[in-house]
Amino acid sequence: MSKPATKISLGVLAFGGFLTGIVFWGGFNTAMEMTNTEQFCIGCHEMRDNVYVELQDTIHYTNRTGVRATCPDCHVPHNWSHKVARKMQASKEVFGWVFGTINTKEKFEAKRLELAQHEWARFAANNSLECRSCHNYDSMDWEKMSPAAKFYMQPASERNVGCIECHKGIAHHLPINDSGVNPILAKVEQGATSQTLEEGKQYFVVKPIAIYEDEDLTKQAGTLSYAAPVKVIEKKDDKVKLQLKGWRKDKGFGRVYHSDFGKNIRVAVMEKDPAQNPDLISVGLSQNDPATGLDWSEVTVEFWAKEGAFIPDVATLWNAAGEIYSSNCSTCHAQPDPAHFDANSWPAQFNGMVGFTSMDPSTQALVLTYLQLHSSDYAEGTH
After folding, report:
1. Angle between the 183-193 and 314-329 helix axes, to the nearest 10 degrees?
2. Helix (H) or strand (E) holding 373
């Protein structure tokens, strides 16, 4: 190594180095490709018994053309440089296999949200590079699409929107915990269960709950909606007497209570008889809404409920709702800012989009409330 070879010529050394390089490169590339097959991916039961089973029920596995996407087709970039980077990133998954972090279905489900969020973030960062190996905007025939698909896909192509922004849960199940509650909301609800309520303080509802006329909780008076603001006026064991202030339309029985005058932002729905009970509800003077010509009255209602569904800071709920909105509604045709519409316009706009998401009805109700209360009616400097 310190002086020229006396018995081996420089040409032989160069040629030997060249051959060694070929052998090393070939061995490296062969080994990498061996790890880039579906057989390798499902070699451990963590994948074979969970996500691979889910894939088999989708169009990416069985379809009329017989073109099937395998694990590496969707989770490994096809060009070489990105592929190597992805393989280096995926090497840490070996530790999960060694230490058994997802070696049972229960463990896998417990970490499904975390695993999904990692993949969604990766797809968002590379603009769905793996998807685009097969799906190309330039090759799409808009006239052969259904009107609904064309309505969303054409604007997405103009903005070069990544596939993952709209298409989550098409190959594997979305993260939903055993109770059927969105995992993001489940964390907020879990925090509410340990919250001790104090008399005289204001709290916010983290999920729809039943409210009652009596302390024994035997006569249901109605239902509170997401983020309804209530004040604790009395407490007995795990039961609380609450006060809610809102607005109702004078037309009809006035069973639906709203958060603000002239704004269709639901905070409670009363049963028919309790809605007319003066012992529960006090009604203020009527005011006319010039935008609709309807008369509204401010109402104050007192009722009983159980602890376990209230938090003192509504921002916690809004952070969860904002995250859900961002992850589910992001840019099918560019995600509207909450302040882009006013409170009364959001229901129609939201209902037109929500069918293309995986949100359950309860989560939809929360996100709509979030959008309405962060609309242009409540944001400074917006139209």
Report:
1. 170
2. helix 361-373
The CATH number given to whatever domain includes residue 329 is 1.10.760
Give 302's strand partners. 243
Contact 266, 369 (CB under 8 A): yes
Per-residue pLDDT tens over the stretch 223-282: 999 999 999 999 998 899 999 999 999 987 688 999 999 999 999 999 989 998 988 999
| DSSP-H helix ranges across 35-92 | 38-41, 45-48, 51-55, 71-75, 80-90
Instruction: Report yes or no: 323 and 261 within 8 Å, Cβ to Cβ.
Output: no
Residues 6+ positions from 215 with CB-CB distance below 8 Å: 236, 239, 241, 304
Q: Is residue 27 part of a domain?
A: no
Dist. CA 101–CA 324, nearest whole Å: 26
The number of folded domains in the chain is 3
Q: Do 44 and 56 belong to one domain? A: yes
> What single-letter DSSP state applies at residue 336?
P
pLDDT in tens, 320-372: 999 888 877 764 556 788 998 999 999 988 887 877 776 777 888 899 999 99
Contacts of the segment 317-320: beta carbons below 8 A, 24+ positions apart: 317/188, 317/204, 317/206, 317/226, 317/227, 317/366, 317/370, 318/227, 318/370, 318/373, 318/374, 320/184, 320/185, 320/187, 320/188, 320/366
Range of the domain at 242: 196-311
Is the same domain home to 362 and 297?
no
Verify that 92 and 68 share a domain, yes or no.
Answer: yes
Handedness of CA 37, 50, 185, 188 (dihedral sign): negative
- Tokens 């279905």, located at residue: 105
pTM over 0.85: no
Quick check: is 48 in a domain?
A: yes
Coil, strand or helix: which one is 118? helix
Which of 267, 266, 277 minimizes the C-alpha distance to 219?
Answer: 277
Last residue of a domain, one of 165, 187, 204: 165
